[in-house]
Structure formats: C-alpha cells, structure tokens
Amino acid sequence: MEYLKGVYELETELLKFALIDSYGSDKFFDFTKKSLKKRTWLTHNSTSGSNTNVLTDYKRASGPQSFGRHLLTQLLIDSKTIPSIRTQEIEEAEKWQTEYSDVIKDIRNTFPKEYEEALTELKKIIRDTRNRIKSAKNVNSLTLYRNLTLFEVKYDCAPVPANIISSYTNDRRVHYKLNDWSGTVIKREIPIDQIITHAEYLEIVGFMEEAEVLVYNPKHKLPKDFKVIKKSIVDEEDETSSEE
C-alpha cells in the first residue's frame, strides 16, 4: 500500500531541548545547569567524553547519563499515551533517573505551560506516527533492529536489560562498532503500540539518523524471542535465535 511520508518540525522549545538540541535553548540549558548544581553533585562540563557532560539531548548522546534521555522519558510517562506505563528504569539508567528526578520536577514546576505544550506535541507525534504505520501496513508489529551496547551484549543470551526508551532502526545493516556500541545486532518484532517515533513514516527534522525508531519497552528485560546477528555483515543465514 502506498503512503505519504510525513515531515514534522518540532515546535516546542522544551521537546527540542530534550530530543535534538540541548544547546539551542539558553533558557532551559541555563536553568537546568543551575538546578543540577543545586540538586545534585554535578557541574556540567561540555567537553565531549567528559563524565559530567550530562546536559545532552537524546540525539547527541542517549546513554544513561544523558539528561535529555531522562527528560524525554519523563515526558513520555506524563503524556499518558501508553496505558499502565512503566515508570522505573533499570541498573545504571535507574541511578541517573533518581539523580535527575528533582531537576526535572524543577523544570515542570517552573515552566508548567512549556511542559504541557511539550506533552501535547509528543502525544501528537506518537499518535500521528502510529496512525501512519497502521494506514500503510496491515500488521500489528514491525521488524526492527538494534545494535546492542557493550553493557547489553555482556548478557549474551541471558535476559538483556531494557531502558524505558530504546533506539532501533528498520535498517538491518546497523552493524557499526563505535564507542559504547558492540556491533552485535538483534532483530525483534515490535508491536506498533510500543513505537514512539519512526523516521520512515514521520520524519522529525533534525532527528532522522539511521532511520531511527524510538521504542517503548514495557518490561525491564527484553523478551527472549529476539534474533541475534553474530556477524558485522548482516545476512539472513547469520541469524540465530536467543532461545537456542
């Protein structure tokens, strides 16, 4: 079935701050930097690779210490777009979620109008993305791929920990090995109702790297029915089930 791909440009300053441009908003950057210093032991250091380079949007750095990751996650939780949504992270991400919780409350309490506007925009993006997928495909799930981090891959075929939000792609060649990425790729069937953004159906301007797909994980561990692709060059015959 043919479908018309959508292109969307973010409008709300706070959602931009969380997702694609933490340095583009002096208002939220400066406020968050001051709140971090007040509420935590952290003093933001913008040097790339620094352990305290934490004021990064999800696009720039989506690791457990990324403030943008946790702000985006809290926006997803507060959007109420997913019934009985999971609210607690796991392991390293849980530590940082706790560290940032009062800072995010400061943002929500100081900028209630901007926070509500960001919630409304995120809900619109999620709804539009899912509607476009359902209009284009008569399926309940999509095949997606994820390059595991070095932290995740150490679990091998044991239950792999899952953050509330994870990045996937529809490109099965996502086999790069850089920094914290392992080069080991998993293949999963993701229910459409767990998809937050999908660049193939609704491209968010400034956020389309690797045909990126943001996915909500309802459980702290991934299901065991994923496929593991062992080789860096992806071929169908290289796939093995995690249950083997």
Task: Tell me about the largest β-sheet.
Answer: 4 strands, antiparallel
Classification by helices and strands: alpha+beta
Fraction in beta strands: 15-25%
Order of helices and strands: EHHHHHEHEEEEEEE
Described by the principal axes of the CA atoms, the overall outline is globular
Adjacency order of strands in the biggest sheet: 2-4-8-9
Helical residue percent band: 25-40%
Count of structural domains: 2
What is the number of helices?
A: 6
Number of E strands: 9
What's the short version?
By secondary structure, the chain is an alpha+beta fold. It has six helices and nine strands, in the order βαααααβαβββββββ.
Word description of this protein:
By secondary structure, the chain is an alpha+beta fold. It has 2 domains: 11-115, no CATH class; 135-241, no CATH class. Helices cover 34% and strands 19% of the residues. It has 6 helices and 9 strands. It has helices at residues 13-19, 26-39, 67-79, 92-110, 112-136, 150-153; strands at residues 6-8, 141-149, 165-169, 181-191, 195-198, 202-204, 212-216, 227-229, 239-241. The strands form 3 sheets. It has a 4-stranded antiparallel β-sheet. α2 (26-39) packs across α4 (92-110), α3 (67-79) packs across α4 (92-110) and α3 (67-79) packs across α5. Mean pLDDT is 84; it is low at 231-239.
